[in-house]
């Protein structure tokens, strides 16, 4: 996968994108990441990339010319541009399903804004407008890092265990069940007996029940419209009944 990032602060990506799983993905050549400073493309003699909004208002807006020309330069190197993603608070909220959708692409380009916002004409360049959540950051760089991390870890060959990603919270539509490792008894806190039983059928049932219980208690909104098996529906009904009696 080719990942391009347009940013005024390319040095912000040097550390996060070269450590841990993302760094490994680059070393294995699963992905290639290029960061372009779109200030390098401005035609303004003072090197400005922003200006005051027409009609007045607070703050400065990114001008279209530097971003148009920077993206054109990227697309000259990669004729099939794939998805062009604008980091914007007004965009669709990023979640696991969006990450899974991005992971199917061969090329992603992230446009990271700064200052008050964008000249509206910049939106004509993009295929997606995406927000990290209902809050405002200083720029789009941190949001892009999060989206890249969530997407790249889904690519084949990135995680050590190929079963890890499908079992993550949100991938199944449920929060992840509790997990334990050695020792079996730590300061009186014991691993549930079922996990030591070796009965994988019962372990799977316990994990499903625990995932349902945790989701119901912490994120009941996730259960709305979720397609559940008959076994899972029965488990959920019992969890709800127990909660009402508590």
UniProtKB/TrEMBL annotation:
<dbReference type="InterPro" id="IPR029028">
    <property type="entry name" value="Alpha/beta_knot_MTases"/>
</dbReference>
<keyword id="KW-0808">Transferase</keyword>
<keyword id="KW-0819">tRNA processing</keyword>
<comment type="subunit">
    <text>Homodimer.</text>
</comment>
<dbReference type="Pfam" id="PF01746">
    <property type="entry name" value="tRNA_m1G_MT"/>
</dbReference>
<dbReference type="InterPro" id="IPR029026">
    <property type="entry name" value="tRNA_m1G_MTases_N"/>
</dbReference>
<feature type="domain" description="tRNA methyltransferase TRMD/TRM10-type">
    <location>
        <begin position="1"/>
        <end position="223"/>
    </location>
</feature>
<dbReference type="InterPro" id="IPR023148">
    <property type="entry name" value="tRNA_m1G_MeTrfase_C_sf"/>
</dbReference>
<feature type="binding site">
    <location>
        <position position="113"/>
    </location>
    <ligand>
        <name>S-adenosyl-L-methionine</name>
    </ligand>
</feature>
<dbReference type="InterPro" id="IPR016009">
    <property type="entry name" value="tRNA_MeTrfase_TRMD/TRM10"/>
</dbReference>
<dbReference type="GO" id="GO:0005829">
    <property type="term" value="C:cytosol"/>
</dbReference>
<keyword id="KW-0949">S-adenosyl-L-methionine</keyword>
<feature type="binding site">
    <location>
        <begin position="132"/>
        <end position="137"/>
    </location>
    <ligand>
        <name>S-adenosyl-L-methionine</name>
    </ligand>
</feature>
<dbReference type="InterPro" id="IPR002649">
    <property type="entry name" value="tRNA_m1G_MeTrfase_TrmD"/>
</dbReference>
<comment type="similarity">
    <text>Belongs to the RNA methyltransferase TrmD family.</text>
</comment>
<keyword id="KW-0489">Methyltransferase</keyword>
<protein>
    <recommendedName>
        <fullName>tRNA (guanine-N(1)-)-methyltransferase</fullName>
        <ecNumber>2.1.1.228</ecNumber>
    </recommendedName>
</protein>
<keyword id="KW-0963">Cytoplasm</keyword>
<comment type="function">
    <text>Specifically methylates guanosine-37 in various tRNAs.</text>
</comment>
<dbReference type="GO" id="GO:0052906">
    <property type="term" value="F:tRNA (guanine(37)-N1)-methyltransferase activity"/>
</dbReference>
<dbReference type="GO" id="GO:0002939">
    <property type="term" value="P:tRNA N1-guanine methylation"/>
</dbReference>
């Amino acid at each position: 996968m080719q990942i391009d990032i347009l940013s005024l602060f390319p040095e912000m990506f040097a550390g996060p994108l070269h450590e841990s799983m993302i760094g490994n993905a680059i070393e294995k050549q699963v992905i290639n990441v290029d960061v372009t400073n779109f200030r390098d493309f401005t035609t303004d003699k003072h090197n400005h990339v922003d200006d005051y909004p027409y009609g007045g208002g607070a703050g400065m807006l990114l001008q279209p010319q530097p971003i148009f020309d920077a993206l054109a330069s990227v697309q000259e190197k990669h004729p099939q541009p794939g998805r062009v993603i604008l980091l914007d608070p007004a965009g669709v909220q990023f979640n696991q399903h969006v990450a899974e959708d991005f992971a199917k692409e061969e090329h992603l380009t992230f446009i990271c804004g700064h200052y008050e916002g964008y000249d509206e004409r910049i939106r004509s360049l993009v295929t997606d407008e995406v927000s990290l959540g209902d809050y405002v950051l200083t720029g789009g760089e941190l949001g892009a890092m999060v989206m890249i991390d969530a997407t790249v870890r889904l690519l084949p060959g990135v995680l050590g265990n190929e079963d890890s990603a499908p079992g993550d919270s949100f991938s199944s539509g449920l929060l992840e069940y509790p997990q334990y490792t050695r020792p079996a008894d730590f300061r009186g806190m014991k691993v549930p007996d079922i996990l030591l039983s070796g009965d994988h059928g019962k372990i799977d049932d316990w994990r499903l029940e625990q995932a349902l219980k945790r989701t119901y208690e912490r994120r009941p909104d996730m259960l709305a419209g979720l397609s559940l098996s008959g076994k899972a529906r029965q488990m959920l009904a019992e969890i709800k009944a127990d909660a009402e009696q508590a």
